[in-house]
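Slide 14.
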Amino acid sequence: MSWLLFLSTNVNLPEVAVSRLQLALNVSNLEEAVDFYSTFFKTEPAKLRPGYANFSIADPPLKLVLFENPDAPGTINHLGVEVFSSEEVVAATEYLQAQGMTTDVEEQNTCCFAVQDKVWVDGPDASRWEVYTVLADAPTFGAKPDDGACCVQEPVTVGAKSCC
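Slide 15: predicted structure.
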């Protein structure tokens, strides 16, 4: 049953391919969190690595990313929108810049066990948003060579690594 139909059984919406929202959470115990979210969303992680789990949830369309971070459990790590192509990342960058937002563009960046093109913007209350596309799987968590963090300006500890 669709989450939308679960919430409102009087609505019939056609199913279409859509981008999905990304929610990246810090959790104190990755194993417990994976068990909970696997049950809650009725799906197993698409990627499971030490200190990291990544769910690709079809219904509702959601990319749920978990970072084991005992120093900041229960907090949002960052937010994002996963799109289908690099062209969509470029279009988002152009739109955000035209709206006067400062953007941070990353191309072919290895982050979160994936090679990605992305653009970052800072939102209100220190929120950090990305619009990104996954180009390929990667065997490593990844890090930008200039500052040791791949996803945020201020690194978050994930296991023994600093990254998003």
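Speaker note: The beta strands are 20-27, 47-49, 52-57, 62-68, 76-82, 104-111, 114-122, 128-137, 156-158, 161-163.
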